[in-house]
Amino acid sequence: MTDSAAENDNDVPVAGDAVASVDGEVREKLIRMRSSIDNIDAALVHMLAERFKCTQAVGRLKAENHVPPADPGREVKQVARLRELAEESHLDPEFAEKFLNFIVAEVIHHHERIGRGGEPWPSAPGGD
Ligand SMILES: C=C(O[C@@H]1C=C(C(=O)O)C=C[C@H]1O)C(=O)O
After folding, report:
1. Domain residue spans in the chain?
2. Hey, whose CA ends up nearest to atom 7 of ligand 1?
3. Domain 24-115 = CATH 3.40.50.12500
4. How large is the ipTM?
5. Is Ribonucleoprotein given among the entry's keywords (predicted)?
6. Full-model pTM
7. d(CA 124, CA 104)
């Protein structure tokens, strides 16, 4: 055992304590940068929550009117648009497409559940 709780016998920072071994000025910088990352992550969660509120309303409308859960034509247009936006913003367009597909796949699951008369996900407020 070393004298630092943040390191193991190989002087490798222990998971969760990576900053503890970093020198003061660098640590301060990292903490400030991480505080912005935390704010951005919070904004992402809030934006996703709003997006899912919209898509759940779409899911109910579709279920009431016998419209299928997925709309591949709409998705093709969304992917093309987001890839363009990603390129303009210097974000990897492949990543932007994967991220959108990941979200849309979840939305379609929600729509399928709503179509069967259930809640969008098992522990949704008002669900099981
Ligand atoms: C929300 C809709 O349903 C699905 C989900 C989409 C999305 O999350 O953006 C897009 C198309 C559909 O496959 C929709 O048809 O607009």
Report:
1. 24-115
2. 104
3. no
4. 0.99
5. no
6. 0.84
7. 18
